[in-house]
Amino acid sequence: MATTSVGASDVPNPRKNDGNSRNSNNTDTAANGGPDERPVVFSVRHLWKVFGPKADRIPDDADAAGLSAQELREKTGCTAAVRDVSFDVHKGEVFVVMGLSGSGKSTLVRCLTRLIEPTSGKLEMDGEDVRAMDRGALRELRRRRAAMVFQHFGLLPHRSVVDNVAYGLEIQGMGKAKRREKAAEMVDKVGLAGLEKRRPGQLSGGQQQRVGLARALAVDPEVLLFDEPFSALDPLIRRDMQEEVVRLHREEGRTMVFITHDLAEALRVGDRIALMRDGRIVQLGTPEEIVGSPADDYVRDFVRDVPREQVLTVRRAMRPAEDGEDGDGPALAPDTLISDAIETVARTGGPVRVVDGTRCLGIVDHACLLNVVARLQGPQHDEHGEVAA
Ligand SMILES: Nc1ncnc2c1ncn2[C@@H]1O[C@H](COP(=O)(O)OP(=O)(O)OP(=O)(O)O)[C@@H](O)[C@H]1O
């Protein structure tokens, strides 16, 4: 069985210096308080997937809805792998589905392209009703619009790297010269230039996964769906691949849905994380929201060992400015990680302003930064991490 793992020193954030706020562009309600205005790619409402006899009766059965997974199994013989799940995936975000083994991650993501047929609920891609699509439209959806990258790379052993990458284009009917050219471009993009002619058996696990990634990218899908893509890789290569995903995302802004049971991985790659338990989403939020404001004891326990200073930003640490403090002196942007702010405050030796443009949002000093790291009660923040006046 898979376990959740968070190494205490294991969550450095590869995008912390990318100039993008981790939480200004990634929630239904953005950090500035406004809604996420980007178009919705996947819209999921009240989705259920029930396995077992008379499965379609379960979603409407008020009694069944109140039962735990085990009670439901005992009483009805059914497993509700996905239970009344609703969320939107916005264009350009990395949406992570996380949870322990058996929580419903794979079932949920397979439902998005109907690799698994949902039992009930509403499912749209770019406003189109996915549940109403016929075979042809579904094939198109899976081949061109939402490409899946699996843990087991599914490479063709007798084909070269470049021909494996070109495979999806071949299925689409693209001519040989053109698809090879495109495939070579993708091989280059994922850092495998020079290895085009090798066979999969002559590559390391990490390199094989890069071929899988290049193959998915070659068809230029609107969304990439990753099903635990890196869980078979050793930790260093895994880290490399996570950074690769973040780099590709940053450079291309491609929408990604990423399944993992590893919290450190979720925090590293995710713009938002849906944390699942027994088929339900128990919390959906940015890494900072999940770590800084866990929805319940289950989530709190889940994130207990996360090094908070590497996930939370100064928004969560700052206190209101006192008279005279909001003038000159050193300043930090509101999305600065606590770990970086500690360095600045230690260097300057005094309070530092948190500034959004010309507006002073608050102050961080030794005490409030320590409070966050030590989990002590500091200033009150609303659910978006804004300090209360
Ligand atoms: N075809 C099936 N028939 C019956 N039950 C199923 C079927 N597929 C999945 N399940 C059950 O649905 C639940 C969710 O399974 P799912 O594979 O979606 O979980 P997961 O979170 O992806 O797990 P893992 O991390 O181990 O892959 C589990 O209890 C599983 O046993």
Automatic annotation (TrEMBL):
Belongs to the ABC transporter superfamily. PROSITE patterns: ABC_TRANSPORTER_1, ABC_TRANSPORTER_2. Gene3D superfamilies: P-loop containing nucleotide triphosphate hydrolases. Residues 67-303 form the ABC transporter domain. Keywords: ATP-binding, Nucleotide-binding, Transport. The keyword ATP-binding applies. Residues 20-30 have a biased composition (Polar residues). Transmembrane segments: none annotated. It comes from Streptomyces albospinus. InterPro entries: AAA+_ATPase, ABC_osmolyte_uptake_ATP-bind, ABC_transporter-like_ATP-bd, ABC_transporter-like_CS, Gly-betaine_transp_ATP-bd, P-loop_NTPase. This is Glycine/betaine ABC transporter ATP-binding protein. One of its GO terms (molecular function) is ATP binding. The lineage of its organism: Bacteria, Bacillati, Actinomycetota, Actinomycetes, Kitasatosporales. It comes from the Bacteria. Residues 1-38 are annotated as: Disordered.
